[in-house]
Amino acid sequence: MTEKKNFIEHAKDGKILSHKCINCGYLSLATVYFCKKCGKRGFDDFVLDGQGKVGTYTIMTVPPTGFEKYTPYAWVIINLDNSDLRISGFLPNIQKSGDLPIGAAVKVVGFDDRGIVLKKL
């Protein structure tokens, strides 16, 4: 299975596949080929629970082509718990900024044509 497909399968299960450098232990998303910290190649898979806190977001009321049926929604950057990693994802049914305070707890709940799908906890 390719890295991308493996990453998607984990996201469908609410997890985030990451890589831990075998040289220095630095944690990266599974989509990297070289360690950002030491520059070496060689990783062990490391699966993170897909929970985190909202770092920032934008509410989409005028969506890009193909996403009209999903509006309104938020495109969210989350800081994953127990790591320094951040990911972005789709959070449905967010209509205004008061619906999603910065720091709110969210979780990965799937992956589909929108990308990573999140749920507010």
UniProtKB/TrEMBL annotation:
> A Pfam family for this UniProt protein?
OB_ChsH2_C
Question: Where does the record place the ChsH2 C-terminal OB-fold domain?
Answer: 48-109
Q: What PANTHER family would the database entry show?
A: BLR3430 PROTEIN
The name this protein goes by in its record = OB-fold domain-containing protein
Please tell me the species this chain comes from. Marine Group I thaumarchaeote
